[in-house]
Amino acid sequence: MSNLTLQAGLTAVITGAGSGFGLELARLAAKKGLKLVLTDVQQDALDAAVAELEGAGAEVAALRGDVSRAEDVQALADLCMERFGAPHIVVNNAGVAHGGLIWEHTQRDWEWVLGVNLFGVIHGVRIFTPLMLAAAQKDPKWQGHIVNVASMAGLLNSPNMGAYNVSKHAVVSLSETLYQDLSLVTEQVHASVLCPYFVPTGIHLSHRNRPAELRSEGKPTPSQMIAQAMSTKAVTSGKVTAADTAALVYEAIESGKFYIYTHPQALGMVQTRLEDVVQGRNPTDPFAGKPEIGQQLRQALREAMAKQG
Q1: Could you tell me the CATH number of the domain that includes residue 24?
Q2: Are strands 11-15 and 89-92 parallel, antiparallel or unpaired?
Q3: Strand pairing of 60-64 and 35-40?
Q4: 5 lies in a domain?
Q5: What pLDDT, in 10s, does the model give residues 23-68?
Q6: Are 167 and 232 a contacting pair, CB within 8 Å?
Q7: Residue 209 CB: number of other CB atoms within 10 A?
Q8: How far apart are CA 63 and CA 120, in angstroms?
Q9: What is the domain extent for residue 55?
Q10: pLDDT digits (tens, 9 = 90+) for 251-287
């Protein structure tokens, strides 16, 4: 298996490129001389990214878009083909977070989270993979790589984060299947999945870009406010940066590595979960290592439910 070597002149498509991982991936790609095709749902953030990257000398094509909409991802692919041809790298990065007790998620909550986190990846894979395979068939030396951004939440099931967990587990499954399917038909296009843990990216503020038609009616529930507070604290206190993560992604592309972890020390919890599955045990308390956090969450939720009841 030959892997993709990053070099000037290649083209990278990055979704969610206005902030967080997406912006750092674009910055690092620009330094390496790659051509960039970028999208983000937030126009001002995208404009700022384009201005910065073009100012650094990068060739950039950009289009505001919502990855949950197939037509927006198709428009991005059309722009890419028109400007630069088939992309060598596609990073399906755009994502949002939403927490709370799983039965308290509204239909709009599910549609928003799954629309961006899962269907954004589905559309990216469905639309860009055929373009990459066609380029590979035309040129035996052509190499391509698709990276889907999941989360450690795609390998674990932290409580009070139901919709997010579901979306990210689905992305891991989709990515593993993509890896296997590609291996059946080509040696020239490969795939990876990024599973970051808590990295300061701004994802805890993703509600700022939630479409009006998918905003929940009424006030957030107590469990949702608790989840928001815990997420904000965990994300903003992360020591591994988005720039560190971008470097890991490009290293994985060049080495042909499938699973990309920002916090490999968290894999102990993944192992415990998988042992639960294999041995048929009931799920292990996710706070076994930090019981004070688990007790704090239980107490807060039970007090909130008592007030509601």
Answers
A1: 3.40.50.720
A2: parallel
A3: parallel
A4: no
A5: 999 999 999 999 999 999 999 999 999 999 999 999 999 999 999 9
A6: no
A7: 18
A8: 15
A9: 11-308
A10: 999 999 999 999 999 999 999 999 999 999 999 998 8
Does residue 6 form part of some domain? no
Task: Give domain status of residue 289, yes or no.
Answer: yes
Residue 187, token pair as written in the block: 């040696």
CA dihedral 73, 191, 272, 102 (to 10 degrees): 10
| pLDDT computed for residue 203 by the predictor | 55
H or E segment to which residue 94 belongs: none
**Number of domains forming the structure of the chain:** 1
pLDDT tens, position by position, 116-145: 999 999 999 999 999 999 999 999 999 999
Model pTM? 0.93
Position 234 confidence tier, pLDDT thresholds 50, 70, 90? low
Phi, psi of 280 (to 5 degrees): 70, 25
> In what order do the strands lie in the sheet containing 89-92?
60-64, 35-40, 11-15, 89-92, 144-149, 189-195, 259-261
Q: How many CA atoms lie within 13 A of 130 on its CB side?
A: 7
Q: What is the DSSP letter of 89?
A: E
In angstroms, rounded to a whole number, what is the distance separating the alpha carbons of residues 218 and 137?
53
Determine, yes or no, domain membership for 265: yes
Q: Rounded CA gap, 11 and 194, in Å?
A: 20
Q: Which residues of 88-97 are buried (b: 16+ CB within 10 A; e: fewer)?
A: bbbbbbbbbb
